[in-house]
Specification:
The complex is a heterodimer of chains A (870) and B (108). In chain A, helix 5 crosses helix 16. With 870 residues, chain A is α+β, with helices and mostly antiparallel strands. The longest helix of chain A is centred in the middle third of the chain and has 38 residues. Chain A is built from 29 helices and 26 strands. Chain B is of the alpha+beta class and 108 residues long. Chain B has one domain: Winged helix-like DNA-binding domain superfamily/Winged helix DNA-binding domain (Arc Repressor Mutant, subunit A, Orthogonal Bundle). Chain B has a two-stranded antiparallel sheet. In chain B, strand 1 and strand 2 form a beta hairpin. In chain B, helix 1 crosses helix 2, helix 1 packs across helix 3 and helix 2 crosses helix 3. Chain B is elongated, with a radius of gyration of 16 Å. Chain B starts with 7 loop residues before the first helix and ends with a helix. The chains are: A alpha+beta (870), B alpha+beta (108). At the A-B interface, helix 3 and helix 4 of A face helix 2, helix 3 and strand 2 of B. Chain B: This is PadR family transcriptional regulator.
C-alpha cells in the first residue's frame, strides 16, 4: 500500500498551476501541505477522487493573501504608473508632432480600409446563411457526363426531393422549388386598376415550414394547399394594398409566361433578407408548373431545385456515395451523378469545372482579405519603422529610467501602452472615416452595408490590441533591451541591426505597394480589353428588349408593326439572351458510321430572320436564314469552330442527325464571333431557326435614337398595355457582363492608392528622420563646400537602393499573381514588360518625390543652424 | 476589541496553533479544527488565515523538519506571539463578562 502511494503523484498540471501563482515565499510549505492532504486522501478515497480533491484544493488556494503579485512582491502604485505612462506618451505625441500625425493618419487609413473590406467580406460570408436549419440544409446537384466533359447543374427533377425523402433515412425534409434559372414566373399582377411587376417562385407545399422566410400572416400548415393560393411578400402586399390586413383573402390576377390566372392571397411573408440570393415577391404551388408543363413532374428534365434537410450527424461523403447513381434507376441513362452541397455554400463556391468545384466568389473574398491584411501590415510597418527610427531620441529616457531601476518589463509595458493608445486613437478615427465613406463604398460594391459599432465592439478591441501590439512590439522589445550605461555614455550598441530591420520593413512595404500597382494595371488593362476587343459582331446602336407576358403570343405580328418604323435600320428576334450565351443543346451527330461521336454539345441559340444581318455577323459560306427559302426548324447555320470540330470539308448541305428530333441541314457558315462573355472561349455554335423568339434586337439609325425608341415604345405598349418598356443598349449590357470584374477593379484601384499612400507616409517620416539625424553631417559637408545637389544625392541614394531592391522582389511576385488572375478569362491581354517597368518606375518616382521634400529642406538649411548647439 | 482585528475563523485557527504547540503546521491545524468543528476545511482557507495573522503580528513561524509524506518539503511551524496570547485573553474576558451578564432565559 505504501509503495503504491509513493508512485501516485498529484495531477502535474495543477501542481504547475500552483507553482505559478502561489507566492514563492510560501510555496514550500503549501506544496508540502497539499501533498500531505493528498496522501491522506489516497488512504481514504479512490485515486480519482483524491486527485480531484487535490485539483479543487489548488483552486481554493487562489486567495489574494497567498498569490503572487504581478510584479514581484512589493506593491506598486499601478494607477500612478499608468498615469505616468500616459503622460509620457501624450507628451511624446506633442513633442514629435510630425511622426505622431504620420502614424495616426497611416494607421487610421489602413484600419479604415481594412474595416471596410472586413464589412464586405463579412457580408459576403453571411449570404444565404439565415435559414434556421442552415447547418442541415443541402442542395442537390447533378453532374452530367458529356462526351468530352462534365457539366454541373444545380437543378434536378421535380420528383427528386419527395422521392429522396422516401428512399433515404438521412433526409429529414425536402423542399422543391421551380428552377430559378428558367422556371421563375415573372409578370404583371393586377389588383383592380393598379399593376405591379412580380417575381414569383414555384414551391412545394412545405416551403415555409422548412426555409426561414417568416410568415407574418397566414397558417403555415395549409398556406400553399391549392393551386389558387398565393403568398405575397410584405413589401409587395404593402405596395398593392397599403396594409397587410386587407391583403389577406383578396384576389389578384397574375399574367406571366406560364399562365394568366386569378389567385387568392393566403398569407404574407417577410421579404427575403438582403443577403439572400433568391429574391422573390410571391410563392405559388409547384403543381402549377406541372399543370403548364408536364415535364415538371417527370424524372427527365431539370425543372426544379431540390433542397434537403439532412439529419444531424449525417456523414456527407457517405451520403453522396449513396445518392451518386440514384438517377440510373429513374431514367434510362447513366450519365447523371448526384451529390449534395451545403445550401449556403453555393454562393461563395458556385463554380464547377468538369464536375469539380473550383471556387467562385470565394476567390474575390480571399483576394480582398489578403489585400486588407497587407494594407494593415503596411500601416503597422510604418509605425514600427518610425518608432524604431526615433529610438535614439528616446534612448536617454530609457537609459535614465533603467539607471534608476526600471526593469525591462515595465519599459516594454510603457512602449506598448504608447502604441496601443495610438492604435485606439487610430481606431476611433478609422470608425469615423468608415462612417463617412460607407455610402460611396456601398455604391461601388452594390451592397447595403452598415456599421453597427455595438456588434463590432469586441472585434474592434481585438483589432486595437493586436494592431497596437504588432506595431509596438518591435520598438518595445528593442528599446527596452538597451544597456543603461552604454546609452547614457552615448554609445548605441546595435545601430547596424536597427538599420537593417528598418530597411527590411521599407522593402516589405514597397514590395507590397509595387505588387498592388502591377495588379491594378493588369486588372484595368484587362477590363479595357474586354470592352474594346473585336467580338465579331456589331454592338453600336443596337437596342434589345424582351416581350413579357403569355408565351404563346405570336412575335411576328409585333415584328411586322415594328418594321414599319423608319428609324429602324434592321430588326430581328431570337429566343434566349445573346450576351449570356443562352441555350445549348446536345444530341447532334453527323457521322452515321461512328457510334462514338453522337451527342456533341453545341451552343445553339434559336434565332429568327435577320439576326445575323442586324448584328453584322459575317457569313463566309452558304447563306443566312431567309424568308424566300421558307426556312424552318430543319435548317441550321454553324460557325467556323463547329466546322473544325466536325471535321467536314464541305459543310453546306451536310445533314446532321438529331436523334428522335429528326435531321438538320446546314445551310450556312458564319465567321467565329464571341457568343456570351469573354470568360468563355468561342465554342462550336449552331444557330437553330425559330420565328417566335421573345427577345428583340434592333439596330437604330444613328441620330434618330430618341424618336425611334419612342415609336418602338408606342407599338410595344399597344401589344403590352400592362408592361413597362425598358430597352437596353447592347453595349451597356455587354459592360454589365463584367460588372463583377469592374467592381473588383474599382475596389482594387482604391485599395492600391491607399496602400501606396500609406507607404509613402512612412517613407516621408523616415526621410525626415534621416535628414534630422544627419543634420550635423550635412552642416559640415556644406561648410566644406558641398552643393545642394550633392547633398540631395547623398540623402536620396540610400532610399533609391531600398526601392530598387523592392522592385526586384516585387516583379516576380506581381507576375505570378497577375497571371493567376488572368487565368479566369479565356482571352486575355499579354503581360508585357512595360507593365512591370511602369510599376517599378512609379514606385521609384513616388519614393523620390516623397523623400525629396525632406532632403530638399535639409539641403537648404543654413549650416550654422544645425552646428550651433554643439 | 475592534483594534485587534481578529476574525472568528482566525481566532479559531490561532487557538488551535496554541493548542498544538510544536505540532502547529498547516495540515495538522486543519485536521485538529476539522475534528473539533466537524466540518471540512481547505488548505487554502487555513493557509490564508495563517498568513494574514502572521502579517498582523499574531504569529511567528519557522521551518520544521521535512518528511517523506510531504514529498520532502519542510513544515512551517507556527507559534503565537505574546501579543496574540494577550488578545486571546482579552477576548475571553470580554466574552465571559458578557456571559455573566446574560439573563438565564437564554441558556435555557
Amino acid at each position: 500500500m505504501q509503495n503504491r502511494q509513493n508512485d501516485i503523484r498529484p495531477p502535474q498540471w495543477s501542481l504547475l498551476l500552483l507553482r505559478l501563482f502561489v507566492r514563492e515565499h510560501f510555496l514550500e510549505e503549501i506544496e508540502g501541505d497539499m501533498e500531505e492532504v493528498f496522501m491522506d486522501d489516497l488512504d481514504q478515497y479512490s485515486i480519482k477522487k483524491a486527485k480531484w480533491k487535490y485539483v479543487l484544493g489548488v483552486f481554493k488556494l487562489m486567495r489574494p493573501s497567498l498569490t503572487r503579485l504581478l510584479s514581484g512582491s512589493q506593491k506598486l502604485n499601478y494607477l500612478g504608473m499608468i498615469q505616468h505612462n500616459l503622460l509620457i506618451t501624450l507628451r511624446g505625441f506633442k513633442r514629435h508632432k510630425t511622426s505622431f500625425f504620420i502614424n495616426l493618419i497611416g494607421l487610421s487609413t489602413g484600419l479604415a480600409a481594412s474595416l471596410l473590406i472586413f464589412l464586405w467580406v463579412n457580408d459576403e460570408r453571411s449570404v444565404d446563411t439565415f435559414h434556421e436549419k442552415n447547418d442541415q440544409l443541402y442542395w442537390v446537384f447533378a453532374n452530367f457526363q458529356l462526351p468530352n466533359s462534365i457539366t454541373t447543374w444545380n437543378y434536378t427533377s421535380g420528383l427528386m426531393g419527395k422521392s429522396m425523402k422516401q428512399d433515404f433515412p438521412e433526409v429529414e425534409e425536402a423542399v422543391t422549388i421551380g428552377n430559378t434559372g428558367f422556371f421563375k414566373p415573372k409578370g404583371i399582377v393586377s389588383n383592380g386598376e393598379s399593376n405591379f411587376e412580380l417575381d414569383g417562385l414555384f414551391a412545394s407545399k412545405n416551403f415555409f415550414d422548412i426555409l426561414t422566410y417568416p410568415l407574418l400572416i397566414g397558417n403555415q400548415e395549409n398556406i400553399l394547399e391549392d393551386n389558387e393560393s398565393i403568398v405575397l411578400s410584405e413589401s409587395m402586399a404593402m405596395a398593392m394594398f397599403g396594409n397587410l390586413e386587407s391583403a389577406l383573402g383578396a384576389t389578384v390576377e397574375w399574367e406571366n409566361q406560364f399562365f394568366n390566372k386569378t389567385f387568392i392571397i393566403s398569407g404574407i411573408f417577410q421579404s427575403p433578407p438582403k443577403n439572400a440570393t433568391n429574391q422573390f415577391d410571391a410563392v405559388i404551388n409547384y403543381d402549377l408548373l406541372v399543370q403548364t408543363d408536364q415535364w415538371a413532374a417527370e424524372w427527365n428534365g431539370g425543372y426544379a431545385q431540390n433542397f434537403l434537410v439532412l439529419r444531424k450527424g449525417t456523414d456527407i461523403e457517405e451520403f453522396n456515395a449513396k445518392i451518386e447513381n440514384y438517377m440510373d434507376d429513374k431514367i434510362n441513362n447513366d450519365r447523371f451523378t448526384l451529390f449534395v452541397q451545403p445550401y449556403a455554400k453555393n454562393y461563395l463556391y458556385g463554380e464547377y469545372d468538369n464536375g469539380v468545384q473550383v471556387g467562385g466568389r470565394i476567390e474575390n473574398v480571399r483576394l480582398f482579405t489578403i489585400i486588407a491584411i497587407f494594407i494593415l501590415l503596411i500601416a503597422c510597418i510604418n509605425f514600427m519603422n518610425l518608432s524604431t527610427a526615433q529610438a535614439s531620441k528616446k534612448m536617454k529616457e530609457v537609459g535614465v529610467k533603467k539607471a534608476i531601476g526600471a526593469n525591462k518589463g515595465s519599459l516594454i509595458f510603457q512602449f506598448l501602452v504608447e502604441s496601443i493608445l495610438l492604435a485606439s486613437l487610430a481606431v476611433i478615427v478609422a470608425i469615423i472615416l468608415v462612417n463617412v465613406l460607407l455610402p460611396q463604398f456601398n455604391e461601388i460594391t452594390s451592397k447595403e452595408l452598415e456599421i453597427n459599432i455595438i456588434d463590432f465592439i469586441l472585434p474592434l478591441i481585438g483589432i486595437t490590441l493586436i494592431t497596437g501590439f504588432l506595431a509596438g512590439s518591435y520598438p518595445a522589445f528593442y528599446l527596452s533591451g538597451f544597456k543603461p550605461v552604454a546609452v547614457l555614455k552615448g554609445k548605441i550598441s546595435n545601430l547596424r541591426g536597427e538599420e537593417w530591420i528598418r530597411k527590411g520593413l521599407v522593402i516589405t512595404q514597397f514590395v507590397l505597394s509595387i505588387v498592388f500597382i502591377i495588379g491594378v494595371i493588369t486588372i484595368n488593362r484587362q477590363i479595357e480589353f474586354t470592352q474594346s476587343k473585336d467580338l465579331g459582331y456589331n454592338r453600336e446602336n443596337i437596342v434589345t428588349f424582351a416581350r413579357k407576358g403569355q408565351i404563346n403570343e405570336n412575335a411576328q405580328v409585333m415584328l411586322a408593326e415594328l418594321q414599319k418604323i423608319p428609324g429602324i435600320e434592321s430588326i430581328a428576334n431570337m429566343a434566349g439572351d445573346f450576351l449570356w450565351g443562352e441555350d445549348s443543346g446536345s444530341g447532334y451527330s453527323w457521322d452515321p458510321s461512328s457510334k462514338d461521336d453522337d451527342n456533341h454539345l453545341f451552343k445553339s441559340p434559336k434565332i429568327g430572320y435577320n439576326i445575323i444581318e442586324t448584328l453584322g455577323i459575317e457569313v463566309i459560306e452558304g447563306r443566312s436564314f431567309s424568308k424566300e427559302f421558307m426556312d424552318d426548324k430543319t435548317k441550321v447555320i454553324i460557325n467556323e469552330s463547329a466546322v473544325k470540330l466536325m471535321g467536314i470539308k464541305e459543310p453546306i448541305g451536310t445533314i446532321l442527325d438529331y436523334g428522335s428530333g429528326g435531321t438538320r441541314e446546314i445551310i450556312g457558315v458564319v465567321k467565329d464571333f464571341q457568343y456570351g462573355s469573354m470568360h468563355q472561349q468561342i465554342e462550336p455554335l449552331l444557330f437553330r431557326f425559330r420565328e417566335e423568339g421573345r427577345n428583340f434586337v434592333v439596330k437604330i439609325q444613328t441620330g434618330t435614337e430618341a424618336a425611334t425608341l419612342q415609336q418602338i415604345e408606342d407599338i410595344y405598349t399597344q401589344f403590352h398595355p400592362k408592361y413597362d418598356f425598358n430597352p437596353t443598349y447592347l453595349q451597356d449590357d455587354y459592360k454589365a457582363l463584367y460588372s463583377t470584374e469592374s467592381k473588383v477593379a474599382i475596389l482594387a484601384n482604391y485599395m492600391a492608392i491607399i496602400a501606396i499612400l500609406v507607404s509613402c507616409l512612412g517613407l516621408f517620416g523616415l526621410a525626415a528622420f534621416t535628414a534630422e539625424r544627419r543634420s550635423k553631417e550635412i552642416g559640415i559637408r556644406k561648410i566644406l563646400g558641398a552643393s545642394h545637389l550633392v547633398i540631395m544625392k547623398i540623402l536620396t541614394g540610400s532610399f533609391t537602393k531600398t526601392v530598387l531592391i523592392s522592385v526586384l522582389f516585387a516583379l516576380p511576385l506581381g507576375y505570378i499573381l497577375a497571371n493567376n488572375w488572368l487565368n479566369n478569362f479565356a482571352y486575355t491581354i499579354q503581360l508585357e514588360w512595360w507593365i512591370f517597368a511602369l510599376a517599378g518606375l512609379t514606385a521609384l518616382l513616388i519614393a523620390w518625390i516623397t523623400v525629396s521634400f525632406q532632403t530638399f529642406k535639409a539641403a537648404l538649411v543654413n549650416p550654422v543652424e544645425c552646428l550651433r548647439n554643439e | 476589541m475592534k483594534k485587534t482585528k481578529l476574525g472568528e475563523f482566525e481566532e479559531l485557527v490561532l487557538m488551535t496553533v496554541v493548542v498544538l504547540q510544536a505540532d502547529a503546521y498547516g495540515v495538522e491545524i486543519k485536521r485538529e479544527l476539522e475534528d473539533r468543528l466537524n466540518e471540512t476545511l481547505s488548505v487554502g482557507s487555513i493557509q490564508s488565515a495563517l498568513k494574514r495573522m502572521e502579517e498582523k503580528g499574531f504569529l511567528t513561524s519557522e521551518f520544521g523538519e521535512a518528511s517523506q509524506k510531504r514529498g520532502g518539503k519542510r513544515k512551517r511551524i507556527y507559534q503565537a506571539t505574546p501579543h496574540a496570547h494577550k488578545v486571546l485573553q482579552d477576548m475571553k474576558d470580554v466574552r465571559s463578562q458578557l456571559w455573566a451578564a446574560m439573563p438565564n432565559i437564554v441558556t435555557g
